[in-house]
């Protein structure tokens, strides 16, 4: 849609000048053209210039909250300013300055949600094996690091999984005909471990899940 077409659909002065900074309204009672809302150049041939109503507005901003960067625990500030008020029209552009400074030891939480159906068993083992390495790596970035764990078992319908008696069948490659090898019943979510800084508890809980 061109700018001109964008303006033409307006039926009132308020609607017209709110559509775009480039839309103008002719309030001349003697106006005889079909469209009162149009671009300024288009209207100047049909409307008295003194009867043109527009809302030319230079885009600007006000800084409302601009606290200094802080590393204080519980009062960390990494982004400034924190709050602006913008004065601008539809389809106009405005650049605002934003500054970022990463705080040391900023709190970081990592929560793993994992599918515990049988087809994902190998990934659970991998996660348990790298759990401590992962925690050690994150603690080099921040000392305030916690890790948690939750799980679900996917829907017992194709193509998500095969099913029998509403339970997922785990096929042991070493004994594929064993009818007694089953997975957990399906469920949407189960919280296993609350966020904790103890990576050993995470590894233990993943392995026992």
What report would you give on this structure?
With 209 residues, this protein is of the alpha+beta class. The strands form 5 sheets. A 3-stranded antiparallel β-sheet has the order 2-1-3. A 3-stranded mixed β-sheet has the order 8-9-12. It has 3 domains: 51 residues, ligand-binding face of the semaphorins, domain 2, CATH 3.30.1680; 41 residues, no CATH class; 101 residues, Rossmann fold. The protein has 5 helices and 12 strands. Helix 4 packs antiparallel against helix 5. The chain is elongated. The model has no long low-confidence stretch (mean pLDDT 81).
Write the topology of this structure.
Blueprint lengths: L2 H6 L4 H7 L3 E4 L10 E3 H4 L8 E2 L6 E6 L13 E2 L2 E5 L11 E2 L7 E8 L5 H19 L5 E9 L13 E3 L12 E4 L1 E10 L2 H10 L1
Parallel strand pairs: 8-9
Antiparallel strand pairs: 1-2, 1-3, 4-6, 5-7, 9-12, 10-11
Structure summarized in a few sentences:
This protein is an alpha+beta fold. The protein is built from five helices and twelve strands.
Strand content: 25-35%
Structural class: alpha+beta
CATH homology superfamily of the largest domain: von Willebrand factor, type A domain
As laid out across the biggest beta sheet, the strand order is 2-1-3
Radius of gyration: 31 Å
Strand elements, count: 12
| Cα end-to-end separation | 56 Å
Number of helices: 5
Number of domains: 3
> Based on the structure given, which CATH architecture of the largest domain is correct?
3-Layer(aba) Sandwich
User: Which fold name is given in CATH as the topology of the largest domain?
Assistant: Rossmann fold
CATH uppermost class of the largest domain: Alpha Beta
Broad shape: elongated
The biggest beta sheet reads: 3 strands, antiparallel
Question: What is the arithmetic mean of pLDDT?
Answer: 81
Query: Helical proportion?
Result: 10-25%
Order of helices and strands: HHEEHEEEEEEHEEEEH
């Amino acid at each position: 849609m061109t700018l001109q077409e964008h303006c033409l659909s307006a039926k009132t002065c308020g609607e017209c000048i709110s559509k775009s900074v480039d839309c103008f309204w002719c309030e001349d009672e003697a106006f005889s053209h079909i469209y009162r809302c149009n671009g300024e150049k288009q209207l100047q041939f049909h409307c008295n210039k003194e009867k043109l109503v527009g809302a030319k507005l230079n885009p600007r901003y006000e800084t409302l909250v601009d606290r200094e960067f802080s590393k204080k625990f519980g009062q960390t500030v990494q982004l400034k300013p924190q709050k602006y008020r913008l004065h601008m029209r539809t389809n106009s552009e405005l650049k605002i300055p934003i500054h970022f400074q990463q705080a040391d030891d900023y709190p970081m939480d990592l929560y793993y949600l994992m599918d515990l159906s049988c087809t994902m068993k190998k990934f659970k083992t991998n996660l348990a094996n790298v759990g401590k390495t992962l925690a050690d790596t994150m603690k080099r970035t921040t000392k305030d690091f916690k890790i948690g764990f939750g799980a679900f078992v996917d829907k017992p319908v194709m193509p998500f999984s095969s099913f029998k008696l509403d339970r997922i069948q785990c096929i042991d490659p070493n004994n594929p005909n064993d009818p007694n090898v089953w997975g957990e019943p399906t469920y949407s979510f189960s919280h296993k471990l609350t966020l904790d800084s103890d990576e050993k508890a995470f590894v233990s809980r993943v392995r026992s899940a």
